[in-house]
Design brief:
2 domains, 8-stranded mixed β-sheet, 23% strand, alpha/beta, 14 helices, Rossmann fold, elongated
């Protein structure tokens, strides 16, 4: 990601973390973990993790400086013991790696001391399969950040992001290939040192770091409460998964024809829950219909089933008085519009992903809830039908084409953007919509 102009300097590291949050949010979707480089990256990362509702920990990396000139970094050592040298810089100065042996050993000892001080007996956080955001207060040469990224990459994260408020342009260029995404708020041409770009760049002690880590530990929210549910819809029963966050601000029904157990749908539901929404993941096609390979369950029938699910959510859960949104995908897309038309006092906003929304034609004129249409591709015929349907709705609508989103259930990564767009739409339109 390219740097964008921002107002500098930052007030302090916490403000820098707050300003990073919106730029990082689209990349911190799957069970996100913020990993801060001590010491300066810790207050930045703590604020970022708070705003993203992500897990937070430190990533132990130490710069290797020249003997007698420790501020001049020529390498870095990571917690796993791996050492990365800036061989170009060493070659320019005609310094062999062997000349740094004592410095490397000293930094290993300091790294272990800090690891014990900051983490104690607490195990290192799980990285595999998660969106990991490595954070520092700035990047001058890039050596420390490179070592940190190499260390995290070895643990096989789902996505690896480097996020820093300010960096030297040369460092940005050299680090671009090291992470899946690079978020840098500013890379000034006149960059000399990280501290120049903060009004308050006070030195941090080990005590500051451990206090921030302890505070984050105390602030960690209680676990979500999840359970499988069966909802009666006329003569049929629908299978679903209901998860209630501890701090509830609304509820979202994620309706699919079938396939609610797909990891990507569960990840999208997780994004919504981290923002305070209860989620009901629901298959609108029954188990019996799936077993019989039934096809062509009509929009009206699916709409009635989704209507029954919203009624159940209102009556049988703590979401009775909370605003409700509906995300309908595929064949459940037009059903979501039918339900919005039938339940205007209950459904506060709708997102439709894929599907033929024109199939909800009889109900469109009664849809007053705000509707976001996410198209799977730029196919002109599908878009024409969607625009036609939008024009018949009574409430505000928007339409976005998600490039590559047809791969959502085929192993692609585009579901991340679907999750972000969905959360943004519900955040904008569900506030105050509850009865």
């Amino acid at each position: 990601m390219n740097p964008v102009p921002v107002s500098l300097p930052f007030t302090d590291r916490s403000e820098a973390g707050r300003r990073l949050a919106e730029r990082v949010r689209p990349f911190a979707v799957r069970d996100p973990l913020v990993l801060a480089l001590p010491r300066g990256g810790v207050p930045v990362g703590a604020e970022l993790a708070r705003l993203l509702d992500a897990d937070f920990d430190v990533l132990m990396v130490r710069k290797v400086g020249l003997p007698g000139r420790p501020e001049l970094g020529v390498g870095a050592i990571s917690e796993d013991g791996h050492v990365i040298f800036d061989d170009l810089a060493l070659a320019r100065m005609r310094i062999p790696r062997q000349a740094l042996a004592e410095t490397v050993e000293a930094e290993r000892k300091e790294l272990e001391r800090r690891r014990r001080a900051y983490r104690g007996d607490r195990p290192t956080p799980r990285i595999t399969g998660r969106d990991c955001v490595v954070v520092d207060d700035g990047v001058a040469t890039g050596g420390t950040a490179r070592a940190a990224l190499h260390m995290v990459r070895q643990a096989d994260p789902a996505q690896l992001v480097l996020a820093v408020p300010v960096a030297a342009p040369e460092a940005v260029a050299s680090l671009r290939e090291e992470a899946d995404e690079l978020v840098v708020l500013s890379a000034p041409d006149n960059f000399h040192a990280v501290g120049e770009w903060y009004r308050d760049f006070s030195q941090l002690s080990d005590g500051h770091v451990t206090a921030i880590l302890a505070e984050r530990g105390r602030a960690h929210p209680p676990a979500d409460v999840a359970r499988g549910v069966r909802i009666r819809a006329g003569e049929d029963y629908l299978d679903g998964d209901l998860t209630m966050p501890a701090a509830l601000r609304g509820a979202i029904v994620l309706a699919v024809g079938e396939g609610r157990t797909d990891p990507r749908w569960r990840a999208i539901a997780s994004v919504l829950r981290r923002s305070g929404y209860a989620t009901l993941l629901l298959d609108l096609v029954t188990a019996g219909e799936r077993a019989e390979h039934a096809e062509g369950v009509g929009t009206e029938v699916l709409g009635e089933r989704l209507n029954a699910a919203v009624t159940w959510l209102r009556r049988a859960t703590d979401a009775a008085n909370e605003p409700v949104g509906v995300l309908g995908s595929g064949t459940a897309g037009p059903a979501a519009l039918v339900t919005a038309a039938e339940r205007p006092r209950d459904v506060g906003a709708v997102v439709v992903y894929g599907g033929r929304i024109d199939l909800a034609e009889p109900a469109l004129s009664r849809v007053r809830a705000p509707v976001m249409v996410l198209l799977e591709s730029g196919d002109s015929f599908v878009r024409e039908l969607s625009e036609w349907a939008r024009g018949r709705m009574a409430g505000p609508t928007d339409l976005r084409v998600m490039p590559g989103a047809e791969q959502l259930l085929e192993g692609g990564q585009e579901w991340r953007q679907v999750a972000v767009e969905t959360l943004d739409w519900f955040d904008r339109h569900l506030s105050g919509s509850g009865d």
